[in-house]
Amino acid sequence: MPPPDDFTVTPYEVKGRIDYARLRELFGTQEVTDELRTRLRRLAGGELHPLIARGTYYSHRDLVALLDRYERGHPFFLYSGRGPSGPLHVSHLAAFDLCRWFQERLHVPMYIQITDDEKFWARAGLTREETVRWGMENLYDILAVGFDPARTRVFFDSKSIGALYPLAIRVARKIPYSTVKAVFGFEASQNIGLVFYTALQTVPCFWPSWAEGKEVPCLIPCGIDQDPHFRVTRDIAEGLGYPKPALLHSQMIPGLLGDQAMSTTGAAADNALFLNDPPKVVERKVKNAFTGGRATVEEQRRLGANPDICSVFALWKTRFAESDARLAEVERDCRSGALLCGECKQSILERIHPFYDTHAVAREKAKEWAESAIVTAAPKPI
Length: 382
Ligand code: TRP
Fold this sequence. Notes:
By secondary structure, this protein is an alpha/beta fold.
């Protein structure tokens, strides 16, 4: 008998050392193959987003079918979201950065959901004022990755509820309590907000089809922990007359303290680079970050270090290596012992600081149009 799996991945809990190939098997998703990568590169005009090229986005559902339709002239839209429980960190931008790339390359619309309701229900310590405030703050950061204002709309749950609710009513009637209980594993003491909430996360998948009165397929780039929500969505889609959303899943980006997933609650604030961290704090966090280095310089020169478990290498891989060649060089020099952790951290900091500066400017510009991107009216009553 194979050993039991000693990790958990759900939208409300990620723990253990995740075996990603096994997780794909458990979830029953498809692999992002070289063939799919080649096809995406061609469709995008010759370049591939590093998060796909380097394997962070590694799993999907029905992406091939969505691209088949797209190539037959059938446009799709993008959808992703954020539960605003606090400030965003650098790695939270991954899904949005990928969406921005798809939007830029394929000129497709983007819908962003900000779930201030979900986080209020999921986190006992948060007030309504906080989730709304973080919702707006997070939205500025998300829009700052470079979305096209003409093609980008936001569902901010508590502000957009009038637009979402007519469809949420229909969606909720299709989801039995037994499904929610089985999929999310809620305890009997769970507040009923989250029991209903999955209906709201589904609505954006169908919203453009509903608004336009014709099938508009949906592609959701997201962390694989969000897949359970969309299994529910996919099960009910056809019964409501809408296409099943396609998904593109990423691995969870490891935290700076060497955890598997980037939990940042409580004392773990040092586990991530928050977008509102001042330069000194960024520097301290990077300098204290967990690496795959050896106990002494002598040992590291002799035996090399291990990038596979290193949180700094994960930063290079997911954002800061400007080319695949640069990433390969960091990896090679790390394994050989030519590159020491201190030097490596210094050189990534030289990229992180300018990224923060550019982001801060883009964020100010995003504030100018954030409010007007929020959808407040339903396309039609039902
Ligand atoms: N539930 C997500 C979170 O906790 C937020 C979210 C809403 C989302 N809609 C989404 C994430 C669509 C990915 C895709 O952060």
